[in-house]
Design brief:
Elements: H1 2-6, H2 10-14, H3 42-45, H4 48-54, H5 65-71, H6 73-79, E1 89-90, E2 103-106, E3 111-117, E4 120-126, E5 132-137, E6 139-142, E7 146-152, E8 158-160, E9 164-166, E10 172-174, H7 176-181, H8 199-202, H9 204-207, E11 208-209, E12 212-216, E13 221-225, E14 228-229, H10 233-237, H11 241-246, H12 260-268, E15 274-276, E16 297-299, E17 303-304, E18 307-308, H13 324-328, H14 332-335, H15 341-344, E19 352-353, E20 357-358, H16 369-375, H17 379-384, H18 386-389, H19 399-403, E21 408-410, E22 413-415, H20 425-431, H21 436-440, H22 448-458, H23 462-476, H24 485-493, H25 499-513, H26 518-525, H27 531-543, H28 550-553, H29 562-574, H30 580-589, H31 597-609, H32 613-626, H33 631-643, H34 647-660, H35 665-676
Antiparallel strand pairs: 1-6, 2-3, 3-4, 4-5, 6-7, 7-8, 7-9, 9-10, 11-14, 12-13, 15-16, 17-18, 19-20, 21-22
The chain binds heme C (HEC) (8 copies).
């Protein structure tokens, strides 16, 4: 049994695929080398200055929005009217917007009965055991367009109930997961009561402030705390307990005074799904405002783990809401003009137009607030007026209409494309990707082909700018992937292309063309300045099994980016390069990196290969401490214990695996076999 596991793909073990959910996804919460925790020995060696500093709360301590409101009353009252504050609320009549007046919903596989008794809300629906039961709704998420009810289970998991209330439109209950995933039975990972749908794992990081989730492996119990439900002051200003004491501006983050890219990270931490270096349960390695995005996160673009994400069009633009960071960082406005969210949006507590758009100042009459945001950087186009837009209808003068069309799906609502592109109707013809012209021109006669011709007639210079998305679509297209190699190589090699798209191209090249991808990957690696791109090229070289690139990877084991370091070490170790081993050992032992899951997992595998079972067990157990829900590792551990005759421990690990992944066949079969013994 042990031997069969040696062949297991190391990479799939290390990465858990992110759950696909109502609005957005993440794999794992963050990490970074910054903000060292106070050393335990400071008390002993304290100088007088250190003593007075010690009396202050840690820079990582949260105060909660109530405290901020004591001095910043105006901000507090304005914020509490804003949707950010409603990102998570207690299910009280004040916050619940869904219809609980004995309402009923029936989908393909789900059915639910909603009811209210005094001030409490309930949903009756199918549970994990296949029986109907009534679940109290303790929390609700959102409420502007959609509101998701949450119930807390006896073991402390927060589970998102199966049926959501769609506020906009008709105001009705919907089962969005079923629409996206198909019929859901209790043994499906995305059945509402399963771990993949737990809010701790999939939602709370972006819907609370100061989240700290713990799991007790022995008691199988979750404990969840936060400074505030919803997106409160300290999500954007950083932990503020010390500032509350000192009132010193130095002790709090002012997003507008940060360098622009750090200001972008404040919003980007939530407005786009991402992978995190350190696992979900590690609150000490969570991103804080003022820090660098790339030290904690890798934005998910086109791929989720090894899978093609359903949340992107073929040309690399997000097709689903809450991916504004991924969209904007692809735009020329960001890449050439340095535009960040705060170029157009403002704080939730500052007076603003809808969607937190800055109030227009000095904009020509009749210009919408959205369009006014473009004026500062594109005054020449404003001056051109109809010469640029070629339309007479007022609606078709709006920059947003052609450059931020509402083609992004927000569950059941249409949101704006934040890639700020020029329309490319040819891509609609070739790949079915929506374009801005046809967002208005919906008449049967106004086919995308017709729009493409009209566009070429009115905007002859457009061809050049359209090349970019045409090439991206030819690169990422799945239907004729066999022909995509020259396009992928061109995207990868283009220094003016967005690093996230070049990185995705590197991974696609390796997945689709294996060893043949190696020359293009190697020739781009040396000039790859962006850490995301570097780390994805290294990952791609690993996928392509490019042993010949080993010497180029060795210096990257000392890269300033921990993402790149980790990737280089893992890749070299998997390629069997002896130079990686001491570095891998160091990653698992050094305090600042010992919380990374993948190095422990890989070291466990390499130890197994060398038949050092005690060490393999130690490393796998450590990885499971960090990621107690990693079913594949639990099964592997069970096999090791079984081989050693420790059946009790094997059974425990398997029961844990089934607890988190009820459908895991490996775990179920082994459990059944153990029962027979
Ligand atoms: C006891 C009163 C008090 C409390 C409580 C308080 N602040 Fe302040 N805060 C101040 C004062 C006073 C200033 C202005 C300092 C100045 O302008 O020199 C300030 C300034 C700020 C600034 C601007 C910083 C800058 O660089 O200009 C921000 C942002 C801020 N506070 C956020 C918060 C947040 C978030 C909280 C809750 C965690 C909070 N404050 C709690 C008194 C307080
Ligand atoms: C901790 C996560 C988090 C951070 C940080 C964050 N947001 Fe949000 N944002 C959300 C969530 C969640 C919602 C949806 C809230 C709801 O509707 O209940 C939202 C909603 C919005 C909206 C729609 C608001 C409306 O009125 O409907 C805008 C615009 C927005 N955010 C912009 C920003 C900008 C700009 C920043 C940075 C200054 C930022 N956000 C920081 C999570 C976050
Ligand atoms: C979604 C992110 C977000 C949240 C939540 C948020 N702020 Fe802010 N805050 C900002 C941004 C962005 C600015 C800078 C706005 C600007 O200067 O245009 C700001 C500025 C401030 C300032 C400085 C104002 C000034 O005149 O310079 C204070 C004080 C402040 N916020 C307090 C708070 C308090 C208190 C809360 C909670 C009740 C809070 N903020 C919640 C994003 C946020
Ligand atoms: C990576 C951060 C992130 C994660 C994780 C996340 N969300 Fe969100 N969510 C957002 C942002 C940001 C918005 C605001 C919409 C936008 O940006 O387009 C949002 C909006 C929503 C809304 C719409 C709110 C409204 O008022 O209309 C709902 C409902 C929601 N999320 C539920 C969830 C649930 C349930 C989960 C977990 C299964 C989840 N979200 C996970 C960031 C996140
Ligand atoms: C160049 C200007 C610009 C930039 C930069 C920008 N936005 Fe927007 N955003 C807009 C406009 C315009 C709207 C639509 C406002 C309206 O509805 O009137 C919008 C709408 C939104 C919405 C509401 C949902 C929707 O799409 O209708 C969210 C959420 C949002 N933006 C978040 C962000 C975040 C987060 C960033 C940074 C990653 C960002 N935006 C950067 C202009 C911008
Ligand atoms: C912070 C400055 C800034 C803001 C704000 C801004 N842009 Fe841009 N934008 C730029 C720069 C710089 C370029 C690159 C110009 C070039 O390539 O000639 C650009 C390029 C573009 C392009 C060409 C895209 C392409 O693929 O070549 C379009 C379209 C565009 N912007 C539309 C908008 C719209 C619409 C808005 C408002 C919603 C906006 N921009 C806001 C700076 C900005
Ligand atoms: C009716 C559709 C339409 C409207 C409305 C529109 N544009 Fe454009 N825009 C286009 C097309 C098509 C192109 C491509 C032509 C080209 O590359 O010169 C383009 C190109 C651009 C470019 C890149 C080319 C350049 O000259 O820099 C920018 C920037 C831009 N638009 C900004 C804006 C702004 C700002 C507004 C609002 C004042 C706006 N557009 C309104 C259709 C439109
Ligand atoms: C905001 C909605 C809107 C968008 C976006 C839009 N149009 Fe139009 N278009 C109109 C309206 C309304 C008219 C008729 C009056 C006028 O000229 O403004 C029109 C007229 C036209 C006409 C004249 C012939 C006819 O079919 O009526 C052409 C050609 C055209 N648009 C092409 C385009 C192209 C190409 C794009 C994309 C670059 C585009 N439009 C984007 C609304 C839109």
């Amino acid at each position: 049994m042990l031997r069969s596991h040696l062949a297991l793909c190391l990479i799939t073990l290390a990465l858990t695929a992110a759950p696909s959910t109502g609005c957005s996804r993440q794999s794992e919460p963050p990490a970074a080398p910054s903000a060292p925790a106070p050393k335990p020995d400071t008390a002993v060696k304290a100088t007088p200055a250190a003593t007075s500093a010690k009396a202050l709360p840690s820079p990582d301590a949260y105060a909660g929005s109530e405290r901020c409101g004591e001095c910043h009353e105006d901000e507090h009252s304005a914020w509490s009217q804003d949707w950010h504050s409603r990102a998570l609320s207690q299910a009280t009549p004040k916050f619940v917007v869904g219809d609980f007046r004995d309402a009923h919903f029936k989908g393909d596989s789900s059915e639910a009965w909603m009811s209210r008794r005094e001030d409490r809300f309930f949903m009756r629906t199918l549970g994990l055991d296949g029986n109907l039961a009534e679940y109290p709704v303790q929390w609700v998420v959102g409420g502007k367009r959609m509101q998701d009810p949450v119930t807390v289970t006896a073991d402390g998991r927060w589970q998102v109930l199966p049926v959501y209330f769609h506020v906009t439109g008709k105001g009705e209950w919907v089962d969005y997961s079923e629409q996206k995933q198909g019929r859901l039975s209790p043994d499906h990972p995305f059945f509402w009561a399963n771990f993949a749908r737990s809010a701790q794992h999939a939602c709370l990081d972006c819907h609370t402030t100061g989240l700290d989730v713990r799991y007790d492996r022995a008691a199988h119990q979750w404990a969840t705390t936060f400074a505030d439900p919803g997106v409160a002051c300290e999500s954007c200003h950083g932990p503020g307990a010390r500032h509350v004491e000192t009132q010193d501006p130095k002790d709090i983050v002012h997003p507008k005074h940060l360098p622009p890219e750090l200001g972008l990270a404040v919003c980007g931490q939530c407005h786009g799904p991402r992978r995190t270096l350190f696992p979900m349960l590690d609150a000490s390695h969570r991103f804080r405002p003022g820090r660098r995005y790339e030290d904690y996160y890798q934005p998910m673009v086109l791929l989720v783990g090894g899978e093609r994400s359903g949340d992107y069009f073929e040309d690399g633009r997000p097709s689903t809401s809450s991916f504004e960071y991924q969209a904007l960082t692809q735009s020329q406005c960001h890449m050439k003009g340095g535009a960040t969210c705060l170029s157009c949006h403002t704080a939730p507590h500052v007076e603003h137009a809808p969607n937190e758009i800055q109030l227009p100042e000095g904009a020509p009459a009749g210009v919408s607030a959205g369009t006014a945001t473009c004026q500062g950087c594109h005054p020449d186009i404003f001056a051109e007026g109809k010469r640029h837009t070629h339309h007479t209808a007022p609606a078709a003068q709006d920059c947003i209409a052609c450059h931020m069309p509402p083609i992004v799906s927000g569950v059941l609502d249409q949101l704006l494309d934040h890639t700020m592109d020029v329309p490319v109707p040819e891509n609609t013809v070739k790949h079915g990707i929506p374009n801005a012209c046809n967002a208005c021109h919906t008449h049967a006669k106004q086919k995308p082909e017709v729009m493409a011709k009209a566009l070429a007639r009115w905007w002859p210079e457009a061809k050049q700018r359209q090349q970019r998305r045409l090439r991206l679509a030819d690169a990422f297209v799945t239907k004729v992937a066999a022909k995509s190699r020259p396009f992928l190589e061109a995207v990868l090699a283009d220094p003016s292309e967005a690093p996230s798209l070049r990185g995705a191209a590197a991974l696609y090249l390796a997945r689709r063309f294996r060893q043949e991808a190696t020359p293009a990957l190697r020739s781009t690696l040396g000039g790859a300045k962006d850490p995301l791109l570097r780390s994805q090229i290294v990952e791609a070289l690993g996928l392509a099994k490019a042993r010949e690139a080993a010497d180029e990877l060795v210096p990257l084991m000392k890269d300033p980016s921990l993402w790149v370091r980790q990737e280089a070490i893992l890749t070299l170790a998997q390629l069997g390069d002896a130079r990686a081993l001491p570095e891998l050992e160091a990653l698992t032992r050094q305090p600042e990196t010992s919380g990374l899951v993948m190095p422990h997992t890989l070291l466990g595998h390499l130890s197994l290969r060398r038949k050092d079972v005690p060490k393999a067990t130690r490393e796998f157990e450590r990885a499971v401490d960090l990621q107690p829900y990693n079913a594949e590792l639990l099964v592997l551990l069970a096999d090791i214990y079984t081989a050693q005759g420790n059946l009790a421990k094997a059974r425990e690990r398997l029961e844990d695996a089934v607890r988190f992944a009820p459908k895991n066949q490996g775990a179920r079969k082994r459990l059944a076999a153990l029962r027979d013994r």
